[in-house]
Design goal:
The complex is a heterodimer of chains A (about 220) and B (about 1000). Chain A contains ten helices and three strands. Chain A has about 220 residues and is mainly α. Chain A has a two-stranded antiparallel ribbon with strand order 2-3. With about 1000 residues, chain B is of the alpha/beta class. Chain B has four domains: about 240 residues, Rossmann fold; about 170 residues, Dimethylsulfoxide Reductase, domain 2 (3-Layer(aba) Sandwich); about 140 residues, Barwin-like endoglucanases (Beta Barrel), CATH 2.40.40.20; about 260 residues, 2-Layer Sandwich (Alpha-Beta Plaits). Helices cover about 25% and strands about 20% of the residues of chain B. Chain B is built from 27 helices and 43 strands. The chains are: A mainly alpha (about 220), B alpha/beta (about 1000). Chains A and B meet through α1, α4, α5, β1 and α8 of A and α1, β3 and α25 of B. β1 of chain A pairs antiparallel with β3 of chain B, so a sheet runs across the interface.
């Protein structure tokens, strides 16, 4: 056998192996701890959930009613942002510089909020823009699960599991980041070591008999 | 980008014909780059997915949460109440409306399949003039213009909508040259005409099968296709309860030429040729005359009736139960129907088992009016013909169908393309019932509402709106409806609340009841009864009957209904020429041989494969209507594309053959007169995709253990034997717990243990559950070829067991699906733990673990596991909207089966956690159970001794199929008790 053929064969094998390893990642879609995608609007959970201490379920109201916590409708944002159109600091700065320059303060509108208004077909004065079609904001999904896994927020919220247990210190996150790896092992660990008692959870120890259901059909439907 | 230009990727356009020769070096460069790229992308975790919230938060719609909208089914003119389960602004499943007085929560296969037809990508979207799309304004201008002058005829099916009827009256009344003609392919015209003569009112009575102790049905398939089968089946089952606090078991005689679903349910079934029917009914009426001791109107010189029919015995039974007995007849022969009315009158049935005081409005057709329309068309008198909701070019015999083109202008209002729209000058798109406002009054005084469940998918408009526009009324769809309800329905109901509150309540409940129609019974006019004239005997006749899935042919474009095995023949994707064994033998044909059925003059003929049907009359061939519809070659691509695959239908072909061509002309003659035909073998042979032999529980005789050659899967007993000694009659051998187990008894211990029971006495085999399960569980359509290879994917199959021959043919239907065995053989053989037991007694199938060894399917004694041989494509992306978002869409190479609707159990548990209320018995209803018109299926918690299913488990009729092999199924069947004359214990096998 000539060297050429040997080299060819070996390189083909390596390439094949490379392709196999490269394309078959042992982790499933959604199992992506630390995933922090750039969002179309630089929304800050630190400001809203941290500084302003808005309840998570004010915006993510689906968590107690539905399988999905949901991303709030644009109209929910407008409950506040019809009035609050810029960061307080920016408004203050403009007021101070206007006073210093002896002029009327200009209308300050955050560039990020302008994207929200544009989505609703409004201009910075919140007047409808002629001919503009409202288009919802396409956020990038952070927490995702494979299609064969059916997570349901309802029983978890009903038993008072804090959102932070799975979603981490959201109140400190400038940009939303995936905190848990959302793998099946991670789910099962929690289900195995907790038992339902009096509407909440108690530590049932590893492998307890009366732990929360670990039946397959709890999640795989 | 234009088609003949390819983008090179660097902004430069590559011209057609230009070729790039890749060098070896470039090739390696790009390969290396590609490999590196593949590695880089392989490190990221799955695709980046967008999440798009609503612009305006909705009060009702919570993403991921189902909500329900009450509406009305438009699958046929029965107008059953349905509730559309919607997700994120679209319906995903239809369920029966439990509040509705007629359907009471049941829904048939056709109703279940309506959600798929909503997402049909081929529905007509915009008005068309001579095939060219036009705007609604131009279409209405054209319609107004042509309807101004000359004779105008409006041809529709039965209109159950009172508001549409009102607009039709206004439209027709505007000019003397207009008339409304009602045509139903499945006509009940003779029943209406007969009541006009005997009771002075052209009306269809309401039948009360629950009140009937003895039922005699002459060719009326009231459990399958006749008038209002869901309501009738519920009533019928209510009269057949052999146990409980007040046991009753009606006695049901069926006389018919073919084997119908209703015949299969009957206690006594007698074969009756179509030409014998009139004389037989007349004989019955005459016998009742003598028992009632009234002056004979039918005379002594009646045609003789074969003693085999046992009419005298039938008359005795009916007479003994007079006041609680009922005669029904599906014939469209006026004389026969007059005798039926006479018999019912002699039995004092009016006012008890059938009533004209609250007439049914589900059939309003008039064959005489259709005949007159045909005459006018033939004479060229009709200037404008508007056709709405019917398909005369298909449903009428050819020479009549051709007449519609004699009208000056043909306007067709239709949601789908059909034989009639193909000839139209102007096509107006009709909306789907699930996207439009409508109402219905199926029985006088019972009004139900339809409301949109989704934003319009097409630009269809209702007939009501079109007529209102032509009459210069500019109101919108909703306004037209509410105005009618405000003016007409609201005063009738006489509610104390405001109209708005009343209308909201009607929208919520789906229907309201008023006092309309509750008049008194009308007197019977015996003078209308004619003397008996014999019907000319045919040597051999065609029985063209409605099939459960296709009905009049309007559902031929629904793949769920095409793939639904016919409940009697179990044939899919075809209509067949059903022949008795004796006739098939005489002809020298076997199942699958193609025969030619021709009119006596040979001018018209249809070629169909033979199906050998037990219990059929020897001198008839039975063929289902509604097949051979144009455009059904759309299904050529249904099912997987692989090298041995054969298309379901050839390009340009049709699914099945159109037997409508052989029907006699309507003019002056009844539809159902014996259609004399000749039959001959063609020598060709085709494969029929019939599921009867698939997945059988039988063991080949040479492999069976001693004494196990015959398995008692479907148990039956006669009422006499059952009352004498139930345990002996049912062959209960006390096997439970007799066996010692190899397996440890380690199941259970959880809060719930799910179980199911099926009452074979209530199951009619109607197959509503099969389609309900298909809709709920995202079961794919596989096409004819795959069905023929035993690869249908339905999670429920309805096993049909037949015993005896000829008149003694008895049938039992047994729904069969995963029995969720405690000692499940499938679990023991799975090498990857893809099927394992849950703590609550479910046999779980984990799709993502399954590697497709199919060991489980081989070892399953019930043969209920289905393997995904392929990725089954949906016809169009649109149809993905009909998928249930709560259930995984399975991919190629995995096994699947009934899950006891685990998603519904989980939903109930999540809701219980949310609300803090415990799960109560009956709060979880699985899809098949919910759809069942007769409530034959009960699901519940076996750990609760007071649950309905636990009570059924303790019923003396309860048994487990194949319980002798000790797999401990979680499904119990309740044996069928037939109200038959005293005879020895008869088990169907």
């Amino acid at each position: 056998m000539s060297l050429n053929v040997k080299v060819f064969g070996l390189s083909t094998l390596l390439m094949g192996l490379g392709v196999v390893f490269a394309t078959t990642d042992p982790r499933l879609p959604g199992n992506d701890r630390g995933y922090t995608p750039v969002q179309p609007i630089a929304f800050s959970h630190r400001v809203h959930a941290g500084e302003l201490a808005i309840d998570c379920q004010y915006c993510h109201s689906g968590a107690r009613r539905s399988r999905h916590a949901g991303v709030p409708a644009t109209s929910i944002c407008m409950n506040c942002h019809a009035v609050v159109r810029a960061a307080f600091d920016d408004v203050l700065t403009e007021k101070q510089s206007a006073a210093a320059e002896g002029r009327e303060p200009k209308d300050v509108v955050s560039t990020e909020l302008l994207k929200l208004y544009t989505a609703l077909g409004l201009d910075e004065k919140l007047e409808p823009v002629a001919g503009a079609t409202p288009r919802p904001v396409e956020w990038v999904r952070v927490h995702d699960l494979p299609d064969f896994a059916y997570f349901d927020h309802r029983p978890h919220v009903a038993r008072n599991i804090a959102c932070e247990t799975c979603h981490g210190p959201v109140q400190t996150m400038e940009r939303m980041q995936q905190f848990s790896d959302l793998s099946m092992g991670w789910c099962i660990d929690c289900h195995r070591s907790n038992a339902i008692s009096g509407g909440g959870f108690v530590d049932a120890g590893p492998r307890a008999a009366d732990h929360v259901s670990t039946d397959c059909v709890t999640c795989h439907l | 980008m234009q088609q003949d230009q390819l983008n090179r990727g660097d902004g430069e356009l590559m011209l057609p014909g230009e070729q790039v020769e890749p060098s070896r070096r470039a090739f390696l460069q790009w390969t290396g780059f590609g490999l590196a790229g593949a590695m880089a992308t392989g490190c990221s975790r799955g695709p980046v997915r967008a999440v798009v919230p609503y612009l305006q938060a909705s009060e009702e719609i919570v993403p991921g949460r189902s909500y329900r909208i009450a509406t009305t089914c438009a699958g046929c003119s029965a107008a059953c109440g349905v509730v559309a389960r919607c997700r994120d602004g679209r319906p995903v499943k239809l369920e029966g409306n439990e509040l509705h007085a007629l359907s009471r929560g049941g829904l048939c296969a056709v109703g279940q399949a309506q959600v798929l037809s909503l997402y049909d990508a081929l529905r007509i979207g915009v008005p068309e003039e001579n095939g060219q799309p036009i705007a609604w304004e131009s279409a209405l201008t054209r319609l107004s213009g042509s309807s101004k002058n000359g004779k105008l005829r409006l041809l529709t099916g039965t209109i159950t909508s009172p508001s549409t009827r009102s607009w039709i009256r206004r439209f027709v009344g505007e000019s003397g040259d207009r008339a409304h003609v009602v045509h139903d392919a499945l006509s009940a015209s003779a029943i209406l005409d007969a009541h006009e003569r005997t009771h002075g009112v052209r009306a269809l009575p309401s039948y009360q099968f629950q009140a009937a102790r003895v039922i005699a049905s002459f060719d009326a398939d009231f459990l399958g296709t006749w008038i209002s089968p869901v309501a009738f089946a519920a009533d019928y089952a209510a009269g057949r309860r052999p146990d409980g606090d007040s046991p009753v078991l009606s006695r049901h005689h069926q006389f018919e030429a073919r084997m119908s679903l209703t015949g299969a349910a009957a206690d006594e079934r007698t074969r009756l040729a179509p030409w014998e029917q009139r004389a037989a009914v007349a004989e019955l009426a005459a016998q009742l005359e003598s028992r009632r001791d009234v002056a004979s109107r039918l005379g002594e010189d009646r045609p003789t009736v074969d003693a085999r029919l046992g009419i005298e015995r039938l008359a005795d039974e009916l007479w003994a139960a007079r006041g609680n007995s009922l005669v029904v007849c599906g014939s469209n022969d006026l004389t026969t129907q007059l005798f039926v009315n006479y018999a019912n009158s002699l039995l004092d049935a009016y006012g008890s088992t059938l009533t004209l005081a609250v007439p049914s409005l589900q059939k309003a057709c008039s064959d005489a009016a259709v005949a007159e329309l045909c005459r006018e068309l033939e004479a060229g008198e009709v200037e404008t013909l508007i056709v709405s909701g019917v398909n005369p070019a298909f449903e009428w015999p050819d020479e009549l169908g051709a007449l519609i083109r004699r009208a000056g202008t043909l306007v067709v209002h239709s949601g789908e393309r059909n034989e009639t729209t193909a000839q139209a000058d102007l096509v107006l798109p009709a909306p789907h019932a699930l996207e439009s406002w409508d109402d219905a009054e199926p029985v006088a005084g019972r009004f139900s509402l339809s409301q949109p469940t989704v934003q319009d998918l097409r630009d269809g408009r209702s007939l009501r709106w079109v007529l209102a526009q032509v009459l210069g009324e500019g109101a919108g769809e909703r306004e037209l409806l509410t105005e009618h309800w405000r003016a007409e329905v609201f005063p009738l109901v006489g509610a104390a609340e405001s109209f708005e509150a009343f209308f909201d309540r009607a929208l919520h409940d789906g229907w309201v009841e008023s006092s309309r129609g509750t008049g008194t019974e009308r007197p019977f006019d015996a003078a209308a009864i004619p003397a008996v004239t014999p019907v000319e005997k045919a040597e051999f006749a065609l029985v063209a009957h409605a099939s459960l899935g296709m009905l009049d042919g309007s559902h031929a474009h629904n793949p769920w209904l095409q793939e639904l095995p016919d409940p009697v023949t179990k044939v899919t994707w075809d209509n067949v020429a059903s022949l008795s064994e004796a006739r098939a033998e005489a002809l020298g044909v076997e199942q699958g041989d193609v025969v030619r059925i021709a009119s006596p003059d040979g001018a018209r003929a249809v070629e169909l494969p033979v199906f050998v049907q037990r219990g059929q009359h020897d001198d008839v061939v039975a063929v289902a209507l509604g097949y051979g519809r144009s455009g059904t070659d759309r299904f050529k691509g249904v099912g997987p594309d692989w090298y041995e695959g054969r298309p379901t239908v050839e390009e340009g072909g049709t699914v099945g053959s159109r037997v409508e061509a052989l029907r006699p002309t309507i003019a002056g003659r009844p539809y159902d007169e014996p259609i004399a035909v000749t039959i001959s073998a063609t020598g060709r042979r085709v494969q029929i995709a019939c599921t009867q032999e698939h997945h059988t529980l039988e063991v080949p005789a040479h492999l069976a253990p001693k004494g196990g050659e015959v398995r008692e899967a479907a148990r039956t007993a006669s009422l006499a034997d059952f009352l004498h000694d139930p345990e002996h009659a049912l062959g209960a051998h006390g096997e439970h717990g007799k066996h010692s187990d190899l397996w440890p008894d380690d199941h259970g211990g959880a809060l719930h243990r799910w179980g199911m029971s099926i009452d074979l006495n209530r199951c009619t085999g109607c197959s509503g559950c099969v389609v309900a399960c298909q809709a709920e569980n995202n079961v794919p359509v596989v096409g004819r070829d795959e069905v023929a290879r035993h690869r249908e994917m339905h999670w429920i199959r309805i096993d049909r067991y037949t015993q005896g021959f000829g008149d003694a043919t008895s049938t039992v239907h047994q729904p069969m699906f995963c029995q969720q065995c405690d000692n499940a053989p499938c679990e023991a053989v799975c090498p990857v733990l893809a099927t394992v037991h849950s703590s609550e007694g479910l046999n779980q199938q984990v799709y993502n673990r399954c590697v497709g060894t199919r060991y489980c399917a081989n070892t399953c004694p019930y043969k209920v596991r289905r393997f995904n041989w392929f990725e089954y494509p949906r016809e169009a992306e649109n149809q993905n909207h009909a998928l249930n978002p709560d259930v995984t869409v399975r991919s190629r190479g995995v096994m699947e089966k009934c899950s006891f609707c685990a998603q519904r159990i989980q939903e109930a548990k999540s809701e219980a956690a949310r609300t803090g209320e415990p799960i109560t018995d009956g709060s979880i209803r699985v899809a098949c159970q919910q759809s069942c018109p007769t409530q034959a299926i009960v699901f519940g918690d076996l750990n609760d001794p007071e649950s309905e299913v636990s009570k059924h488990y303790r019923n003396v009729r309860a048994y487990g199929v194949l319980e002798e092999i000790n797999v401990k199924p979680s499904v119990r069947y309740l044996a069928k008790i037939t109200n038959t004359a005293d005879k020895e214990n008869s088990h169907a096998h």
